[in-house]
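Reviewers of the previous submission asked for a worked example of the structure-prediction workflow described in the proposal, so we include one complete record here. The input consisted solely of the amino acid sequence. No template or homolog information was supplied to the procedure at any stage.
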Amino acid sequence: MRNTIYITTMVLMAALLGACSSEYPELKYVPEGGVNQNVEEVSDVEITPTLSYSSLFFSASTRGGNAFDNKNFPQDFQQHYLGSQFYILSFRRNNTESGEMAVNSDYKLLMNSTDNTDRRDCLVSTFTTIPTNKGHRGAVAMPDDLAGALSFWNDDVRVKKPILWNGKYPEVGYDFFGYYIDDAYINSSSATGDQVEMDITFDGTQDIMVGRAPEVTRKMVGENYPAIVQTTTVDTILTYGKGGYTTYGAKHGLQPKIEMEHCLTRFLFNFTLMEHKSIWIREIRVKSQTNGTLVVAARDPKKMGFKPSGAESFVSMGRFNYLLTPNIKEMLGKGLMLPARGAYDVEIDFDETYYMDLDNTQPVTVTQTQKLTLKPEGAVFEAGTTYIVNMSMYGAQVVNISATLQKWAPGGVIDLPMGDY
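From that input alone, the workflow returned the following structure tokens.
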């Protein structure tokens, strides 16, 4: 089972519609007692995402700061969480029997493009007509506090910029998507009529996630919005949206909950020195691909996710100068996140100091590299799973290595016998 986090939304009624005009200069809102001059009819329901997480929450990271992990690194929790950026996309889900919406929505359109001035096809995306914010296609959503509230931001000028539901099409259903890539480099981004994808390069410190709000069904509404399902409103919501999220539903408390899934496999490394020797760990490297295609939104949800490509190379956790303490299990660094696969080649550089005399006055330091292969118990190491690699060392010899599946995703222990190295 993959670890899942949830981006939910709540309804905020705008106190003054005029206050929104400065946030959306391209839209003219109705002044009090005035006339609607906007192509899109006014909606007073704001899309305000919130993030809820459990005690096993492991999601976003600060820029290149590795995984946000309140279990293994609780001291970094607040800083990492408040600094994370999610990106939200929303496209029309269903078609009408006739008229302008009798064909599928076009995923190539952006929220403010000239072909989408009424946001009929694209409800939420990047604020700019041409995606200038480092190739991103989604609207930025950042945490407001540690309670889980998120706000939309204009990433170009770093100010909050709320987004309202569509007032012209209150009965039209929309699909919602979310993604997170930390500071992974976007080589290019593109869209077809049915999906949005990005070619990205990462270095093992970024947590890559994509997500989609579940289809609106009676069962889903009953499990997540019990107050709604007990009223006759739910019948109208289901009829209007046809599985999607609507302005009408939002006015009655039904907002998207985007289920985020990790696309990579995460490794943490523990070392235990079994003898009273002087050993310094210098570097840990894992061989992997670090490039690929990330589908962040798709009409067919099975097409979403990450597919690695390109040449393999050794990915470093960074340089260390860490002296191991005998008989103490010690975690080094904050791990690596890499594409899921069947096995990984690992290299560990370390220095060991010997003494050439009985008085221990003539030290000699030897640099060595331990090479090994990590293999899973099943066919592959799973995406969305953290593996803790435990290494027991007797000087230059690594005598026992195991990859323990952390409780973040239920599982057992994978033992790797020495004969495999």
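The chain has five helices and 24 strands. We consider this example representative of the routine output the project will generate in years two and three.
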